[in-house]
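Hello,

I think I submitted the iron/sulfur cluster job twice by accident. Can you confirm which output corresponds to this input? Input:
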Amino acid sequence: MSAFRLISRPLQNSRRHLSTSLPSRLAAVTQKTTPEALSAAALHASGPMRNDWTRDEIQSIYDSPLMDLLYHGAKVHRENFNPREVQQCTLLSIKTGGCTEDCKYCPQSSRYKTSVKAQKILDSEEILFAAQRAKDAGSTRFCMGAAWRDLAGRKSNFNKILDHVKVIRSMGMEVCCTLGMLDEEQAKALKNAGLTAYNHNLDTSREFYPKIITTRTYDERLKTIDNAQNAGISVCSGGIIGLGEKGEDRVGLLHTLSTLKQHPESVPVNALLAVEGTPLEKQEPVSVFEMIRMIATARIIMPKSMVRLSAGRVRFSVPEQAMCFMAGANSIFTGDKLLTTPNNEFSDDKKMFDLLGLVPKPPNFAQGSDKKQVPVYHQSQMPKCFKPRKDDAASESA
Ligand code: SF4
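Support: Only one job matched these inputs. Its output is below.
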């Protein structure tokens, strides 16, 4: 069969479709857009901020026709944010591998044979140089990640991290950490150092969670989120799709996040990047349409949260990423690596921003549950690891 015939067949079919008389086609369209036929996405897109969503309501939004969901996600996004602004957050793994936990997607777990080898914590100079490089490339948030279950027995490393928080905050960046479980005291110490946000993902629904992690409970995760929020730190919490969960598990995750006493300030939506050697190495990648469904649903039910197009972005083309931004994503991770998995190059992201007319979102220092002013340190109060850049030092002494 010639290429022309292959192309022309759908046209012939659609012409056959056109034989329906025009008035009756218009009537059908009109009938489908009457208020009675509104999708759940349309019905819930204009409501007030809520923390009492039911699972059925979220399921009905999630199941809305995709283009309708995308449209209403975009509408809610525009009502709550400048749609041109996308936050750039750079994530650096400051302590890689050797983790005692058994998260089945993670190449950093010491239980699986992957190419990731356990390393010592990075030294201060390397961390602060990476933060400065991220800032120079347009990032407004810098996140330090460590492959730890928690901070027990890590006092001296924790103190170093507190110093790094002070320095990076003083560079004029938002600072985030992801260091495992936090108790109340540790959360307060991070807040006092000037931490903007703490990342602690729920990963998936409470029901599916035991199939992915057995070394810490869902409630322990929620406790860390509670400790961070009570200390006045913004919380970044989301999950991963493509772990083998069902649609109802994705809805379950969104239900838990959207019924927290305070919605997370940011909600990362990750698509699994299956890594060789992990128990999930053979998982099929998710499609961009599944990402759009998650992003738009999250946008409608948590209208003021930053929704972050996170791991797996590297697999999506610029047009696919554009649809995710349209659906309500307004944050990305930048930097060549996302902890240990590949990520988009800074330069490619710059080109994408230029092409789509996006601009980096400025930092927001007035956040956290109590909106307390976070400290800004004068150079004389800075920890030893701080080395002022020449231009900064000149302006301080002037
Ligand atoms: S996801 Fe975090 S806690 Fe789980 S194994 Fe990886 S590094 Fe450890």
